[in-house]
Design a protein that fits this description.
The chain is of the alpha+beta class. It folds into two domains: about 80 residues, Winged helix-like DNA-binding domain superfamily/Winged helix DNA-binding domain (Arc Repressor Mutant, subunit A); about 140 residues, START domain (Alpha-D-Glucose-1,6-Bisphosphate, Chain A, domain 4, 2-Layer Sandwich), CATH 3.30.530. The chain is about 30% helix and about 30% strand. The strands form two sheets. Strands 3-9-8-7-6-5-4 form a seven-stranded antiparallel β-sheet. Helix 1 packs antiparallel against helix 4 and helix 5 packs across helix 9. The two termini are about 25 Å apart.
Length: about 270
């Protein structure tokens, strides 16, 4: 049985309100906004926006992160992905169409008075009933990783500064990504750079950074995945698969079963 950090009822209740759906649309349009930025886009009080954001956070649809004095709000599509996997036929639609919260590709924008491109950050959060050690193993073991990561295992000696490669296919003939392990602190934190190689469009985006953070919560773990150092408007192929990957990770750890969505079977 797959568990939910928030009950399914909380997710549906959060999505039932049009203002809360509009807040998610705003974060879909521009992720990582402050309360002040969101408040300016709605004809309700600051307190009203805060109440709606609290409901969305309790449902797991919004994740917050501190940046200095600012508190940034990020759209977290993972609960929608979990509801989709539970209630929608796994073969009812193409995997790309089943992913909620994806942005369309935007034109590259520049910071005022500079030639430096703006960067983009995506934050995903999920609760999994498992131990930190078992979760760490599922992230770093090539055979387990392939079970939920589109058939791609990950290969490394897991030392700081070491390289990793993600290969799929019966003989590992598909190289889907590679990078460097910047920080390794089992079973709590893993920071990696990555170049995605599964398509020309993703490869053209260059190097980005992925941070896995594991925090034990009772009999479960909170896994926060941050994908950043991407250019603003980066191709959604680069980050769009994370909700399905994390949903598959949770399903396998809690039930031992594999997701059978088309995306999950892509390279198997």
């Amino acid at each position: 049985m797959v568990t939910y950090a928030a009950g399914v009822d909380e997710v549906f209740r959060a999505l039932a309100d049009p203002t809360r759906r509009s807040l998610l649309d705003e974060l879909f349009r521009e992720d990582g906004q402050t309360l002040g930025a969101l408040e300016a886009r709605f004809d309700i009080t600051r307190f009203g926006v805060m109440k709606h954001l609290k409901v969305l956070e309790e449902a797991g649809l919004v994740v917050t992160k501190r940046r200095g004095r600012e508190k940034l709000h990020f759209l977290n599509p993972v609960p929608i992905r979990l509801v989709h996997d539970r209630w929608v036929s796994k073969y009812a639609e193409p995997w790309a169409a089943g992913l909620s919260g994806l942005k369309q590709r935007l034109e590259q924008t520049m910071e005022p008075n500079t030639m430096e491109p703006k960067t983009m950050e995506k934050v995903f959060e999920i609760y999994i009933r498992t131990t930190p050690e078992r979760l760490w193993e599922a992230i770093t073991d090539p055979e387990i990783r392939a079970k939920y990561n589109f058939g791609a295992g990950i290969h490394s000696d897991w030392t700081p500064g070491s390289q990793f490669r993600m290969n799929a296919g019966p003989n590992g003939e598909y190289l889907l990504g590679e990078g460097e392990n910047l920080e390794i602190d089992p079973p709590r934190r893993l920071v990696q750079t990555m170049v995605a190689l599964f398509s020309d469009e993703a490869k053209a985006e260059g190097t980005s950074r992925i941070t896995w953070e594991i925090e034990p919560i009772g009999d479960s773990c909170r896994l926060t995945l941050t994908h950043d150092q991407m250019r603003e408007g980066a191709n959604s192929q680069l980050y769009g698969g994370w909700p399905m990957i994390l949903s598959g990770l949770k399903t396998w750890l809690e039930t031992g079963e594999l997701l059978t969505t088309p995306g999950s079977l892509m390279y198997t």
